[in-house]
Amino acid sequence: MPTPNQPRTLTTVATLAKELELEFKGEGTQQIKSVSNFSSATKTDLCFLRSSRYINQLKQSHCSAAIVPLDFNEVIPGKTLLYSANPDLSFVEVIKYLKLYKGNSASGIHSSAIISPTAKLGENVTIGALSVIGERVVLGDNVRIGTACIIEDDVTVGANSTFLSNVTICFDVKIGNEVILQPGVVLGSDGFGLVYDKGNWEKIPHLGSVIIGDRVEIGANTTVDRGALDDTIIENGVKIDNQIQVGHNVHIGENTAIAGCVGIAGSSIIGKNCKISGAVSILGHLSIADDVTVTGMSTVVKDIKEKGTYSSGTPLMENKLWHRSNVRYKSLDKLAKTVSNLEKNK
After folding, report:
1. Residue at 4 is within a domain
2. Nearest CA to 62 among 75, 44, 46, 43?
């Protein structure tokens, strides 16, 4: 996430193409001020075309320029086209170049912040109103702490990390460089560890911590529990969406992306470069190989040992059909026995 700056007023298509190292066809002097979707674009907006199936929307748009795939071979009157191998990525680069992201413009340390005298703050650290920085906390250079954040004792935060409002980091958590934590994130709360004895639940003390690698982003209201004995680990480049539960002792490999409302039970291991879609449930003490995609609403009940795409969710269907299918589903065991008996009697 860029440090908030004043946005650029105007640039030209030719300048953008040079900065992004893209070829273009059309009017290079056309001025660009911002980015937009097709329906709300104005003459000074840049759009992007992910797929040719949206070409009619591009033709009808008021934008004067668009980023398109390299294999796009149509000419659209009145539109300057910039050609990219990855239009989505180029669009992000345009946003950064134009400094369109506003973010929190506050700087310095707010007078209401409470900072332990034993804390060590790097250069150019920002701490928002009502935030609390505990004993022996270490904040790297250019760290930005938002409003009402709690950083408990012995936490380490790497350089260029940004925490938005109401983030809670429990004691002894280690966080890498360039980490982004969205509002309401909690790192290092106790995991769900209990022992049942004579009609009562006894809490298991959690002695581990949470370790977050570099360039990790964690979405709003996501919780990552500390380990019972070993640490909960999230490796470099992991992207975690909103409202996700990461249980104690979970290990998530590099560059894995996890969409919203996923639940990961304790001690599961997810490999590198995985894609976990929304509302997936992952049972505890499982292992998922590298380069695995799990589609939405699936429930992972056993180890996944080979890379590939896996599904278990039930697709939506018309209600009456679903009821009929459910009745048939309940009859599958009886049907299987009938088929087995028929085969035996051949």
Report:
1. no
2. 43
Residue 42 belongs to some domain of the structure? yes
> Where in the sequence is the domain holding 294, given as residue range(s)?
170-310
Distance separating alpha carbons of residues 137 and 271, to the nearest angstrom: 31
* Same domain? 252 vs 337: no
Kindly report the CA angle at 217 between 100 and 163, in degrees rounded to 5? Answer: 75
Tokens standing for residue 160: 């260029």
Render pLDDT for 153-212 as a digit per residue (tens, 0 to 9).
999 999 999 999 999 999 999 999 999 999 999 999 999 999 999 999 999 999 999 999
The residue annotated as part of the active site, out of 110, 206, 248, 251, is 248
Does residue 303 sit in the same domain as residue 330? no
Sequence-ordered alpha helix ranges (H) in the chain:
13-20, 55-60, 87-98, 319-330, 332-344
CB neighbours (10 Å) of residue 330? 9
The structure tokens 């065991």 sit at 333
pTM of the entire structure? 0.89
DSSP codes, 9-28: S-EEHHHHHHHHT-EEES-T
As given in the structure block, the two tokens for residue 233 are 């680990």
The question of whether 248 is a catalytic residue gets the answer yes
Please report, for the domain that includes residue 181, its CATH number.
2.160.10.10
Q: Which residues contact 71 (CB under 8 A, 6 or more apart)?
A: none
Q: Are residues 295 and 328 in the same domain?
A: no
State the CATH number of the domain containing residue 63.
Answer: 3.40.1390.10
Domain identity same for 94 and 187: no
Q: Which structure tokens are listed for 5?
A: 């700056």
